[in-house]
Specification:
0% of the residues lie in helices and 59% in strands. It contains no helices and 26 strands. A hairpin with a 2-residue loop joins strand 14 and strand 15.
Length: 327
């Protein structure tokens, strides 16, 4: 094993009856086993984010509740032209948002005047339907037999904590329509990545997240937000099996040139991410604000399995980002 962290193998509640973090929930999983029985208001955050990469497009779908607002988005990048088509909405008090307690089960839903998102989940997989004025999509993301995902609980304290599921290299098929033009999405050359989040957050936080997918391989890496907690969100996926990486990795990237190569390294990882596009998102509302630089690109390098075998990352496609939140 390449981690010191405790693997959880049986279902567990994220919270105690009084709303504090359940100590038995701290660890990592290969399949979603946590029930996010969150309580309290103001610092609770819930979201479902799906990122999809096809040969022609990059797609981002997010439905979320941050208690005092629902923040939802539908984003499409045309890889050939660089054109971005995006709809972002903020719904006061997160009206119309549905978030199930368990990843991979039930419906997540977000509705607003300009955007509708439906995410239906069952043991066979996930179906995503979303529509805005300019974009509509209907995607099916099957769950292959034996496919594992990384679940991690990050404990800042017994009152502030986050449960995340990062699921990379999922096959995806269906249709995407942008400005009236329909594009077929084929599981032969398209991949989906899930970020499922449930927790209670500090007011200010910075994180890094990176993911890459290809047939039979995937990489999931994170940094900053887990510092000092004893948890990491690093893993290699090979033929559906997860290899947990417990070491904090070294991230090197240029904040003055986001499109320069990113380097992420440690004893188990020697990775280079080369961006081809930068997506910038900024929101400033007095005491609340966000700034995210999400770069889409390709991977090279290598990462090591539990058994010590190096697996090359060449040809993986995905993203790397830095996000700063005041929320």
């Amino acid at each position: 094993m390449t981690t010191h962290e405790r693997e959880i193998t049986a279902p567990v509640d994220l919270c105690l009856p009084d709303g504090r973090l359940n100590p038995d929930a701290v660890g990592w999983t290969r399949t979603p086993l946590h029930r996010a029985n969150l309580s309290g208001w103001g610092r609770t955050k819930r979201w479902e984010y799906w990122g999809v990469v096809t040969p022609s497009h990059v797609i981002g779908v997010v439905a979320s509740s941050i208690d005092y607002a629902g923040v939802h988005g539908l984003y499409v990048l045309d890889r050939a032209t660089g054109e971005e088509t995006a709809t972002d909405v903020v719904v006061p008090l997160a009206r119309g948002v549905v978030m199930p307690e368990t990843s991979g089960a039930g419906r997540a839903e977000a509705r607003a005047k300009k955007l509708a998102i439906l995410i239906d989940q069952d043991p066979a997989g996930t179906r995503i339907r979303a529509a805005s004025h300019d974009v509509s999509l209907d995607l099916t993301i099957p769950l292959p037999p034996g496919h594992e995902s990384l679940g991690v609980v990050v404990p800042w304290s017994d009152r502030l904590f986050q449960y995340t599921v990062k699921d990379v290299a999922r096959p995806v098929s269906g249709s995407l329509t942008v400005h009236g033009t329909r594009h077929e999405v084929s599981a032969e050359d398209s991949f989906a990545v899930l970020d499922h989040g449930r927790g209670r957050w500090p007011y200010a936080m910075t994180w890094n997240w990176a993911a890459g997918s290809a047939h039979g391989r995937g990489i999931q890496l994170g940094d900053k937000w887990t510092d000092g907690t004893g948890s990491t969100e690093n893993a290699l996926l090979v033929d559906g099996r997860l290899h947990k990486i417990g070491q904090k990795l070294d991230w090197q990237y240029d904040r003055d040139d986001w499109l320069a190569p990113w380097r992420i390294s440690g004893d188990e990882v020697e990775a280079v991410f080369t961006p081809f596009h930068e997506k910038v998102a900024r929101t400033e509302m007095l005491v609340v604000g966000t700034e995210t630089h999400q770069c889409f690109g390709t991977w090279s390098g290598r990462a090591r399995t539990d058994e010590g075998t190096w697996v090359d990352l060449d040809g993986l496609v995905g993203w790397a980002e830095e996000a700063q939140q005041r929320w």
